[in-house]
Structures are given as structure tokens and as C-alpha cells.
Specification:
Keywords: Hydrolase, Thiamine biosynthesis
Largest sheet: none
Order of helices and strands: HHHHHHHHHH
Catalytic activity: thiamine + H2O = 5-(2-hydroxyethyl)-4-methylthiazole + 4-amino-5-hydroxymethyl-2-methylpyrimidine + H(+); 4-amino-5-aminomethyl-2-methylpyrimidine + H2O = 4-amino-5-hydroxymethyl-2-methylpyrimidine + NH4(+)
Number of strands: 0
CATH superfamily: Heme oxygenase-like
Subunit structure: Homotetramer.
Shape: globular
Distance between the termini: 35 Å
Structural class: mainly alpha
Protein name: Aminopyrimidine aminohydrolase
Domain Thiaminase-2/PQQC: 20-217
Length: 237
């Protein structure tokens, strides 16, 4: 079994958990509130901005020209997506590059970003790529799941979990090429390095669930502070 196959086998329970999450179910049934949607939209666009730096690190640490070209292509798509997304946002939301950089980052978003950023210091594609590829894979798989459900076809719900097409799917899509790179790099890695890469992938899958959960509950730093300092005696997680 290749490293990527091992990753995907162990990630299956995380995928099922994500499918069952009330936020994902709320997308299917159009039951999310405007406040839940706004929280997710604001935090997600800030998260996508953070991924620009992760992709840059993949470019910088590529071990082949083909890898660098693939990551450059993915970066072009990321920046184009962010540009178009910002143009659609109202004035009360991040609507240009400067306001995007100033978006308040809430707890789970920060934990996820820090998890990914921590891999950059390894200067290893094998360690950096799984932190990023897991979210891509999870989003695509959730899109497949949602497409098979009797979902409500109205906006903004209809546009959720629709990333796909030739850029991401199939043998030449980003997802498969990312896994090919992971397997290529794993050939020269130690068992300990391979296990570390797998655990990074799985942690990203877990944090995807918590990202939905934070949006569903609209968890902020104020909530964490109140829970800690006002003696509620219970965790928000």
C-alpha cells in the first residue's frame, strides 16, 4: 500500500464525520442562518488567503521542475479565486486585498492555520503538502457526497461544495497529482517521516470538521474567554 493509499484509508472515518456534521447537513437542506453563513464566509476567505503562503512554500521546496510548475498552476487558481471572491463581497466583508489581510481570525481557524504553517519549517514537500492536500481532498469528497443528496437548490447553498471539474478531478487533476507527489517523495523518506506526513494529513482532516463546527456554533475568542474566565466549567469544543 502506498503512503497516499494509507492516508486515505485512515482518513475515511474523518470523511464520514464531516458528511454528518450539522453544517454540511445544513448546506444540503438550506437550514443555516445568515449569521452562520457569514461567519463561515469570513473565516474561509481568510483561510484561503493563508493557503497562498503554504503554496508558496511548496513552490520554494519543490524537488522537481514538474512539482514547481504544478504548484505554480495551483497558486494561479488560488489567487484568481480570491480576486473573484473579494469582488463579490459587500463592503461589510473583506472586499479587497488589504481588508482581507485584516480579517479577525477566530480560534479554530487560527489553530488550523498554525497547524499548516508549522510544516513549512521542515522545508519538505512530503511534510508540507499533506497539510494542504487533505483539505482539498475533503472538500472534493464532500462535494461528491452532497451531489448525491436531495439538496435544496437555492443560493447561497447551491454554490457550497462545488469545487471540482477537470482542474481537480481525474488522473491529471490536482488531487491525484498531489497524491502522486506524496508517494514519490515517500520513496526516499524514512518510516518516521512517512508516519509524520500521514498524521499531518489526518490532523487536517480533523480540523476540517472543527472548522464546520466553529461556523455552526459561531465560536469566537470572546466565547473562549467567557468559558474560561466566567467559570462555566465546560468546553466550547
Amino acid at each position: 500500500m502506498s503512503l497516499s493509499q494509507d492516508m486515505l484509508f485512515e482518513a475515511e472515518p474523518y470523511l464520514v464525520a464531516n458528511e454528518k456534521h450539522p453544517f454540511v447537513q445544513g448546506i444540503i437542506h438550506a437550514t443555516l442562518t445568515p449569521e452562520q453563513l457569514r461567519y463561515y464566509d469570513e473565516q474561509d476567505i481568510a483561510f484561503e488567503y493563508n493557503e497562498v503562503g503554504i503554496i508558496n512554500a511548496l513552490i520554494d521546496n519543490s524537488t522537481t521542475t514538474e512539482q514547481a510548475l504544478l504548484f505554480h498552476k495551483r497558486q494561479d487558481l488560488q489567487l484568481t479565486m480570491l480576486r473573484d471572491w473579494l469582488h463579490r463581497e459587500p463592503e461589510s466583508m473583506p472586499h479587497n486585498w488589504e481588508t482581507l489581510k485584516q480579517t479577525p481570525i477566530q480560534p479554530i481557524n487560527q489553530l488550523y492555520r498554525q497547524h499548516m504553517a508549522a510544516t513549512v519549517q521542515t522545508h519538505s514537500v512530503l511534510q508540507i503538502l499533506p497539510s494542504f492536500a487533505a483539505g482539498e481532498w475533503m472538500y472534493i469528497e464532500l462535494g461528491r457526497f452532497v451531489s448525491k443528496q436531495a439538496r435544496v437548490e437555492k443560493e447561497p447553498f447551491q454554490s457550497f461544495l462545488t469545487m471540482g471539474g477537470d482542474d481537480f478531478l481525474g488522473p491529471n487533476g490536482f488531487i491525484q497529482q498531489f497524491f502522486n507527489i506524496i508517494d514519490y517523495e515517500a520513496k526516499s523518506a524514512t518510516p518516521r517521516e512517512q508516519e509524520r506526513a500521514k498524521q499531518t494529513f489526518l490532523k487536517s482532516c480533523l480540523l476540517e470538521w472543527y472548522f464546520w463546527d466553529a461556523a455552526y456554533k459561531q465560536i469566537t475568542w470572546d466565547d473562549w474567554q467567557n468559558a474560561a474566565l466566567k467559570g462555566k466549567g465546560e468546553s466550547l469544543l
